[in-house]
Write a structure and sequence with these properties.
The complex is a heterodimer of chains A (86) and B (554).
Chain A: H1 16-33, H2 50-80
Chain B: H1 2-11, H2 17-36, H3 49-54, H4 61-72, H5 75-88, H6 95-120, H7 125-133, H8 136-167, H9 178-199, H10 202-230, H11 232-245, H12 264-278, H13 282-289, H14 294-303, H15 305-324, H16 335-343, H17 346-384, H18 390-414, H19 417-432, H20 435-443, H21 449-468, E1 482-484, E2 491-493, H22 494-515
Antiparallel strand pairs in B: 1-2
Helix pairs in contact in B: 2-9, 2-10, 2-17, 4-10, 4-13, 4-14, 4-17, 5-8, 5-15, 5-17, 6-12, 6-14, 6-15, 7-8, 7-20, 8-17, 8-18, 8-19, 9-17, 9-18, 10-11, 10-15, 10-17, 11-15, 12-19, 13-17, 16-17, 17-18, 19-22, 21-22
The chains are: A mainly alpha (86), B mainly alpha (554).
C-alpha cells in the first residue's frame, strides 16, 4: 500500500490489528464494571478475600493487555511508514 | 528552617522527636533539589510558558512516568483511600478498578491530544478546544471548569500534609494559638511556592523521584511488616469483617467486605466516572504534554499500573488499621498516619511521614502550574490582553501559580476540612462535563460548539444540584457523590449521570443546530494533526504554524 507516510492515500481506519488492540483495551472495562462477577469472599488467597485479590490481579492482566495493544499499534505504524524504525 | 519547628516541638506534647527529625531532614533535602531543578535539562531560552509550564516538552518515558505517577497518586490518595476502606470496607476499594480503567483510556485518546498540541503549540485543553471549534466561549467554559476543579484538589494536598503533622503531634495542641498551630503547614507551603515559582515543572519532576522511591519503600515494608505483627491477612480480614458488620449510629452496618447487590452500581459507576474524569484535570494534561513523543505516553500506560498495584496494597492498610484498633479520634483521615506511628519504629515512621508530605508537594506544584497555564492562556491572553508576549505570559503564569496556592492555603486554614473534601467531590463531577468537548473533539468535528456549551451547562447544573441533595449522617448537603440514577432506580455516581445527560443534550442540540445551519466555527486543525509524531513536519516547532481554516474532519 502506501510506501510513504506523507502520501495522501486513504488508508482503512478499521484494520484487524486495530480491532484486536481495541478488544485488549475494552476487556478491563467489562471485567471491572461487572461487579457481581467478583463480589464474593471465597476463595481467599493467603487470607485476602476474592473481591480484593481478583481486582488486584486485574491490574496485572490489564497491564499485559495494554502492552499487547501497544505492540500491535507500533507494529502497524512501522509497517505503514514502510519499515522505518524510530 | 529547623529552628521554628524545634521550638514548636518543645512547646507541645507528644511529639516524636526521632520521627520529626527524619521528616525535617527529608523535607530540607527536597527543598534544595527543588531549587536546583531550574538548572536541570535547561534550554537556551527559558522565559516562556513552554519552558516553565511544560518543562520544555522534553521529558522521556521514565521522567514522564515519575511525573504522572507523582501527579495522579497524591498524598491525599494515600491518606483518603485507606481511610475510606477503614471507614466503610469494600466501597472504598473502587479506587483500584478506577485506576485500572484509566490506562486503556489514556492509550486511546491522549496520543491524539499530544499530536495536535505539539503541531499547534497548545499548552492547555482549552487551547485545543478553541482551535478545534473556533469558540472562545467554549474554551473559557473548559478553562473555568478546570480552575474550579483544581483549586480544591490543591487544598486537599494541604489537608494531607496536615493529617501527617497532626499525628506527629504538631499543630494539634489545644492551647496553641492559630499561628503556632499552622506554622508547620505555612513553612511547607512557603517552600512549595518558592521552588515552583523559580523552577516551574522541572521542580516537581525531579522531586517526584524522591517521593516515589520513599512511597514504594514504605508500602513494601508496611504490607509485609504490619500483617506479620497483626497475625496474618486471615486474622486481619476476619476481625475487619466483624467490625464492619456492626451497626453504626444510623442503624445500618458500617460496611461490608465485598460489595453487596445494592452497592454494585455505585461501585462500578464511581470507578468508571472517576477514570473518565481523571484525564480531564489540567494537571494530568500538563504532565502528558510535557513528554517527548506519542510513544512515551503509550509506553507509560504499560508501566503506570505499577502504581495501581501499590494503591491496592495501600487500600488494604485500611483493614489493618481496623484490626490494629487504631485510634483516629473520630477522623478516619488519620487512620494511616496513626497506624504507621503505632506500628513502625520512630525513625521509619518519620520516613513514612516524609513520603506522604513530599507526596503532597509534587502534585500541589503540578496542579498550580496547570491552573496557571489555564489562566494565562485562556483567560489572560484570550480575554484580557490579546497581544501578550511570551515573556508577559511567563510572568503572569508564575504569579498565578502563587495566587492559586495562597487561595488553597486560605481555604484550608479558614474553612473546615470537610468543605475542601466536598468541593473536591464537586470538582470531579464538574471536570467530567468537559469531556464531550475535549475527547469528542479529538475524534470528531460532528458536535456543534453551541450544543457542547449547552450540554456542559446542563451537566454542571444537574451535577451540582444532585450533589447538594445528598445527605450523610454528619452533613445535610454534599454528603457524598452517589445518588439515585433517574429512571434506573439504582444508586450511581452523580458525575456519570450528569455526563450522560450532558452527552444527550449535546447530541440533540447538534442535530437541531445543524438543521438550522447555525455557524459551526472555524477548525484550525486538520486530520493529519492528530496522528503526527516527533520528527514529522511542524511538530517540534515552538510556535503554531499559520494554518488557515482547514476542512472539518469527520
Amino acid at each position: 500500500m502506501a510506501e510513504n507516510a506523507a502520501s495522501p492515500v486513504r488508508r482503512p481506519v478499521v484494520t484487524p490489528t486495530r480491532v484486536v488492540a481495541g478488544l485488549c483495551l475494552l476487556a478491563p472495562f467489562i471485567a471491572m464494571l461487572w461487579v457481581s462477577s467478583y463480589a464474593r469472599i471465597e476463595p481467599t488467597l493467603i487470607g485476602i478475600p476474592f473481591f480484593y485479590w481478583y481486582q488486584m490481579a486485574w491490574v496485572l492482566i490489564s497491564t499485559a493487555l495494554t502492552a499487547v495493544a501497544y505492540r500491535l499499534v507500533r507494529r502497524e505504524q512501522r509497517a505503514r511508514k514502510g519499515g522505518e524504525v524510530r | 528552617m529547623t529552628t521554628p519547628v524545634t521550638t514548636l516541638a518543645a512547646g507541645s506534647q507528644g511529639v516524636d522527636g526521632v520521627a520529626l527529625t527524619v521528616f525535617v531532614l527529608f523535607f530540607l533535602a527536597v527543598t534544595v533539589m527543588g531549587f536546583l531543578a531550574a538548572r536541570w535539562r535547561r534550554a537556551e531560552q527559558s522565559a516562556n510558558l513552554d519552558e516553565w509550564g511544560l518543562g520544555g516538552r522534553s521529558f522521556g518515558t521514565w521522567i514522564t512516568w515519575f511525573l504522572l505517577g507523582g501527579d495522579l497518586y497524591t498524598a491525599y490518595t494515600f491518606v483518603a483511600v485507606p481511610a475510606a476502606v477503614y471507614a466503610a470496607g469494600a466501597s472504598g476499594f473502587f479506587a483500584v478498578p478506577y485506576t485500572i480503567l484509566v490506562y486503556p483510556l489514556i492509550f486511546t485518546f491522549l496520543p491524539r491530544l499530544w499530536s495536535v498540541s505539539h503541531r499547534h503549540g497548545y499548552v492547555t485543553t482549552s487551547d485545543f478546544v478553541r482551535g478545534r471549534f473556533g469558540s472562545k466561549g467554549l474554551s473559557l467554559a473548559v478553562a473555568l471548569t478546570g480552575l474550579l476543579a483544581t483549586m480544591p484538589y490543591i487544598a486537599l494536598q494541604l489537608v494531607g500534609i496536615q493529617a501527617v503533622l497532626d499525628v506527629m503531634g504538631l499543630g494539634g495542641g489545644e492551647h496553641a494559638n492559630w499561628f503556632v498551630k499552622d506554622l508547620p503547614l505555612l513553612i511547607a507551603f512557603a517552600v512549595l511556592a518558592a521552588y515552583t515559582y523559580s523552577s516551574g515543572l522541572r521542580a516537581p519532576a525531579l522531586i517526584a523521584f524522591v517521593k516515589d522511591g520513599l512511597i514504594y519503600l514504605v508500602i513494601a515494608v508496611a504490607i509485609i511488616y504490619i500483617p506479620i505483627k497483626l497475625g496474618g491477612f486471615g486474622e486481619i480480614f476476619h476481625s475487619a469483617g466483624t467490625a464492619l458488620a456492626q451497626h453504626g449510629p444510623t442503624g445500618k452496618p458500617r460496611g461490608e467486605l465485598a460489595s453487596g447487590p445494592n452497592a454494585q452500581w455505585a461501585y462500578a459507576t464511581l470507578a468508571l466516572g472517576s477514570a473518565l474524569a481523571l484525564f480531564m484535570y489540567p494537571h494530568s494534561i500538563t504532565a502528558t504534554l510535557s513528554s517527548r513523543s506519542r510513544n512515551v505516553i503509550r509506553r507509560n500506560t504499560t508501566i503506570l499500573p505499577l502504581y495501581s498495584l501499590m494503591l491496592g496494597f495501600l487500600a488494604l492498610l485500611g483493614f489493618m488499621a481496623i484490626k490494629a484498633g487504631t485510634d483516629t479520634h473520630g477522623n478516619a483521615q488519620l487512620a494511616i498516619p496513626q497506624l504507621f506511628e503505632d506500628m513502625f519504629p520512630s525513625w521509619f515512621a518519620g520516613v513514612a511521614f516524609a513520603a506522604i508530605g513530599i507526596g503532597a508537594l509534587v502534585p500541589a506544584a503540578i496542579m498550580s502550574i496547570a491552573a496557571a497555564n489555564l489562566f494565562t492562556r485562556n483567560v489572560y491572553k484570550d480575554f484580557l490582553k490579546p497581544g501578550a508576549t511570551p515573556e508577559q505570559e511567563h510572568k503572569v503564569a508564575k504569579l498565578v501559580s502563587l495566587l492559586v496556592k495562597v487561595g488553597a492555603l486560605a481555604f484550608v486554614l479558614t474553612m473546615d476540612k470537610t468543605v475542601a473534601i466536598n468541593f473536591q467531590l464537586l470538582g470531579g463531577i464538574w471536570i467530567l462535563q468537559t469531556m464531550p468537548a475535549l475527547v469528542g473533539g479529538l475524534f470528531t468535528r460532528w458536535f456543534h460548539r453551541w450544543a457542547l456549551l449547552a450540554g456542559w451547562a446542563v451537566g454542571m447544573v444537574y451535577g451540582t444540584l444532585a450533589a447538594y441533595g445528598v445527605a450523610s449522617p454528619t452533613q445535610k448537603h454534599f454528603g457524598g457523590s452517589s445518588a439515585e440514577i433517574p429512571g434506573l432506580g439504582q444508586i450511581g455516581y452523580i458525575g456519570l449521570t450528569a455526563f450522560v445527560l450532558n452527552v444527550l443534550v449535546t447530541v440533540v442540540l447538534t442535530v437541531v443546530l445543524k438543521a438550522l445551519k447555525a455557524p459551526g466555527g472555524v477548525d484550525e486543525t486538520s486530520p493529519g494533526d492528530y496522528t503526527a509524531d516527533l520528527g514529522d513536519e511542524g511538530v517540534t516547532a515552538d510556535l503554531p504554524p499559520a494554518t488557515a481554516g482547514a476542512p472539518a474532519g469527520h
